[in-house]
Write a structure and sequence with these properties.
Length: 233
C-alpha cells in the first residue's frame, strides 16, 4: 500500500502595523517589500502559522484555540482560507512521503531572513510575541539573548546574514562547506558556476543532497526559535 503523503504549512513574510491617518491601526504582512492586507480570518490563520511548521490537523487545532474568544465572523472554511493564503503567497505548503521530504518541499524555495539583521524587526517580533501569541515576557525576551546553536545552525545563520539566500541554496552551501556568499559574484561562483545549476532547478538538484536533512533542520530550528523569518523574491 502506498503511504499517505505528509503536508506541512508555514507563514511567509513579517507582521507589521499601519495607520490609516485617522487614528486607526490595522495589520499587514510584508513580503519582498510589498504590503498585503489580510481580512481578520486570514490574519488569524497567518498568525497561527507564524513560526510554526504544521500539518492541517495542527493548523485546525491552533486556529480553533486562537479564535475561540475572538469576535470573528468566518467568511469561509478553514480549508478555503488556507488555500487562498497559499495562492496569494502568504503561506507556503510542502508535500512529501516522509516528514523530511515534506519539510524540504515546504522550505526549499523560501528565502531565510535573520531577525538579528534588524533591531526594528526584532522589536516588532518581540511585541507580536507578547500581544498576538501571548508568549510570557520571560520567554519573549530570549529573542535578544545570545543563543546556543549547533554548527549547522551557526553556518546557516551566518550565511543568511551575508546575503538573501533560499533554503535550497543553503543546502548546497552546507553540502560544499561554503562559508562566504557576501555578494552576487561570490554567490554565483559558489552556487551557480557549474553548467547545470540554475535558480529554477537548484531546489530539485539539492533534493538528493547528502546534507539536505541537516541543513533543512538547521533552517527549521532557527525558524521555530524565532530567529529567522521566511521571505520570497
Amino acid at each position: 500500500m502506498k503511504s499517505k503523503n505528509r503536508n506541512f504549512y508555514t507563514a511567509v513574510g513579517r507582521f507589521h502595523t499601519k495607520s490609516d491617518g485617522r487614528g486607526n491601526i490595522y495589520p499587514v504582512v510584508i513580503i519582498s517589500g510589498q504590503e498585503y492586507v489580510l481580512d481578520p480570518q486570514e490574519m488569524s490563520v497567518w498568525t497561527v502559522l507564524n513560526w510554526r511548521l504544521l500539518d492541517f490537523s495542527m493548523v485546525d487545532w491552533h486556529y480553533n484555540d486562537l479564535v475561540r474568544n475572538l469576535p470573528l465572523t468566518e467568511t469561509r472554511t478553514l480549508e478555503d482560507c488556507l488555500s487562498r493564503l497559499v495562492t496569494r503567497g502568504l503561506v507556503a505548503s510542502g508535500t512529501g512521503q516522509t516528514t523530511p521530504d515534506a519539510l524540504y518541499d515546504l522550505l526549499s524555495g523560501l528565502y531565510v531572513v535573520p531577525l538579528s539583521k534588524s533591531i526594528f524587526l526584532r522589536l516588532v517580533t518581540f511585541f507580536q510575541m507578547l500581544l498576538l501569541d501571548h508568549v510570557p515576557f520571560r520567554k519573549a525576551k530570549k529573542l535578544f539573548e545570545k543563543p546556543d546553536l549547533s554548527d549547522d545552525e551557526m553556518q546557516v545563520l551566518e550565511l543568511s546574514r551575508q546575503a538573501l539566500v533560499s533554503t535550497a541554496e543553503l543546502v548546497k552551501c552546507v553540502e560544499l562547506d561554503i562559508i562566504d556568499v557576501s555578494g552576487n559574484e561570490k554567490i554565483m561562483e559558489a552556487l551557480y558556476s557549474d553548467a547545470d545549476t540554475t535558480c529554477d532547478n537548484i531546489a530539485d538538484l539539492m533534493r538528493g543532497a547528502k546534507n539536505r536533512e541537516a541543513a533543512v533542520m538547521a533552517v527549521a530550528n532557527l525558524y521555530l526559535r524565532r530567529m529567522v523569518i521566511f521571505d520570497r523574491v
